[in-house]
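Today's session is about reading a structure prediction critically. Students often jump straight to the picture, but the first step is always the sequence itself: look for stretches that repeat, for charged clusters, for runs of hydrophobic residues. Only then move on to the predicted structure, which in these notes is written as discrete structure tokens rather than atom positions. Here is the chain we will use throughout the hour.
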Amino acid sequence: MATVTNGQTKSPAKGAGGTNAALAASLKDAGCSYASLAHRVNELGRRQGSEPHYDKASVTRWLQGQQPRGNTPELIAAVLSERLGHSVSPADLGFLTEQQRPVVSRALVYGEDLGETLHTLAELGSTDISRRTLLGTVPFVAGALASPQRAWLLWLVEHIEESGPGGTAHLAAVSSSGPVEQVHAMISMFDQMDNNYGGGGVRTSIVHYLSTEVVPMLQQRGMPSHHQRQLFAAAARLAAMAGWSSYDAGEYGLAQRYMTQGLRLCAEGRDRVLGGQILAGMSHLATNLGRPDEGVALARAGVATAKPGGSPLGLMRLYAMAARGHAAQGHRREACEALRAAEDQWEASRGPEHESPWVRFLDHHYLQAEAALCYRDLGLAPDAERMAMESVIANADRRRRQAISRSVLATAHLQQNRLDEAIGTATEALDTLGSVHSERSIQALRDFRLRLEPRRKEPVVEEFERRSRAVLGMAA
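Below is the predicted structure for this chain, in token form.
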């Protein structure tokens, strides 16, 4: 039976003297020191919204059998998954697990069994909505990204003749199937709400509709095969939207899990373009959470997926994601090459009406916004300013994109030592955030604020810091 000591739960004995032998073995296999583990757990926790302060002594206590508080077992598993190169769960490391842990772990897996996938997705959605058992932050696990990529690409090779392009023909037959038409209508409504108010404002509605309405449709039998494929593709799109909206709300671990399950549903829908777009979303997530190497790998997998799909706009986005990953690593040549490839795909597109329904929202202004982020990270301030300004002008009705592009524009001004302009633009971005529930937008402005650190004693910077606290929190 578990006991409690000094506020921490002590696990049942797992080795001689009650030590956690499973954790010790994993640390040894990973070649991970106590200090390195504690440092990375702290870093990952801060990146995902908490403020852990662990050290070597903390790791010693874990090895002696103490159960870390809150979601720390998930963070430890995430760190060791990265070091080991494969996914491990808190249970694999000898930690006690709350009731929700199994579905949180299962949702990281691209499962072969379709019935199990649907069960996992429904359970994840139910647990997410109720929040009765989903305690703490569910962490993003970079080490769990490789397996879904590999499983998807193997499936694609094995079913190459069955995987369709997902182009305009896909949508043409939608009206002949009531359930599919209904799901597409809901997707359009959620898209509009997301664009207007951010993912935080629509996330719960998407998850509820997916898990309680759409998954049961997928479990029914007797639907014609072509309608069933369309329904699976629409469900995959909804799962990806649940992932994106979770990402936008700062729920990074849930975003990863919904996108992973969406990729599995996409296999049943036989839609290459949509598969590529889900991989683009996973790439974006990985790069922004500090793993741009994984972001590039996911984007490359998406390009391989989508190339035969007949959708230049889809490929444009994937090349842009590859550029983002390269830029975050400071790889200027590779980033610029990827941006040129994205531009080539934009020019190759014959217009939205000739594209898959899943990518018709993409336009040249989207590419400008992503290019601005790349140039910012590469320190190419004049290029970042030009692209960000064009994005701001073009996206007057997209408040989230406005907020992000204004933050990038402010950084470009700052990089050119134009402090007053930078603060003025950042203040406009701050005002935009008042009507948008988007953690991604907030993070973009926090990135700008962090760059103000060397000049924080100047009055204009102090005033911005004071005004921004209500939205951005205290500066680190």
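Discussion point for the tutorial: Residues 3-97 form one domain.
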